[in-house]
Design brief:
heterodimer; A: alpha+beta; 6-stranded antiparallel β-sheet; 6 strands; B: Non-ribosomal Peptide Synthetase Peptidyl Carrier Protein, Chain A; two-stranded antiparallel sheet; 5 helices; 2 strands; 45% helix
């Protein structure tokens, strides 16, 4: 399975917005390295790397953008316009990526996003970051390069996530 | 539609470029080139278009602000230089750009030098008056 950094889709409004969650678990290997503290003689401090929050938002927003054309376009992350992460997220907490489609045309799309963190101790979702992205439609690129016809961006793992969220209809009319 | 003076347009364009390219405001002068001086890459043009649309409540069509698909057409580029046909197309499609410098040196890589901050201000100015 490809590197998926969202677990499931929790809200979807066609062409408008999408929300996905990611549960953070201590059994995930990355938390044992990030940070293990050993080198600096510090206690371990397992926190979610900000770069992976960007990936989580890119997957959420990328599905939102791809769904507009029912996954016929190869949607690739082209630019990270803005990233602000105010607080850490740790194992036992849940992240929610809330992506909104800002602008879209034949060449690509821009999205705005908010990252929220659920602390299960108090049950409150707090905003901990904002991530704005730009996606490009690979086959509409201006360089005149061509890519394989097969849509390698949206593979089975993306479909699996949409199916489990009851969104099968989004690729029903896929050609 | 809102009426803006050229100074007001320049200020807004400056905000857009600071935001899209992460450049310092003092670097955004009228004669700064987007690619050479401000470091814009191809995807930034999409970003700039989107932000200008929002800022001025206008619609910018694909290829209206910056040329597209020029390089893949061999009637437009010969031996790395823009043909007469290419120059005609550019002038017709992009009246907001001063192509006189490019006319003298038609190497394709010189194309990036004609897109200045001023060409964006002119583009918006024309667009708002249309």
């Amino acid at each position: 399975m490809r590197w998926m950094w969202i677990d499931t889709v929790t809200a979807f409004e066609d062409g408008v917005r999408m929300e996905a969650v990611k549960n953070l678990s201590l059994s995930e290997e990355l938390f044992h390295d990030h940070f293990d503290g050993e080198e600096d003689g510090l206690p371990p401090e397992p926190v979610m790397p900000g770069s992976l929050m960007v990936e989580g938002m890119a997957q959420t927003a990328g599905i939102l953008v791809g769904s507009v054309n029912r996954f016929r376009e190869k949607v690739v992350l082209a630019k990270v316009s803005k990233v602000e992460i105010d607080e850490d997220a740790a194992p036992g907490q849940t992240l929610r990526y809330e992506a909104e489609l800002e602008r879209m045309d034949a060449v690509g799309a821009s999205t705005r996003g908010v990252v929220r963190r659920l602390d299960h101790a108090d049950g409150v979702w707090r905003e901990i970051g904002r991530i704005d992205l730009i996606f490009s439609h690979l086959d509409q690129n201006t360089g005149g390069r061509t890519f394989p016809e097969h849509n390698f961006v949206f593979g089975d793992n993306f479909k699996q996530i949409l199916v489990s969220a009851g969104l099968d209809r989004l690729f029903d009319d896929e050609s | 539609m809102a009426v803006f003076s050229r100074d007001e347009i320049f200020e807004k364009v400056k905000d857009v470029l600071e935001n899209a390219l992460g450049v310092d405001p003092e670097d955004v002068t009228m004669d700064a080139t987007l690619i050479g001086d401000l470091g814009a890459e191809s995807i930034d043009f999409l970003d700039i278009s989107f932000k200008l649309e929002q800022e001025f409540s206008i619609k910018i069509d694909q290829g209206e602000l910056f040329p597209e698909n020029l390089m893949s057409d061999d009637t437009l580029v010969e031996d790395g230089k823009l043909t007469d046909k290419a120059m005609d197309i550019l002038r017709e499609r992009m009246p907001h750009v001063d192509f006189s410098k490019l006319d003298a040196d038609r190497r394709v890589n010189q194309l990036s030098e004609v897109f200045t901050v001023e060409s964006l201000v002119d583009f918006i100015d024309r667009k708002l008056q249309a």
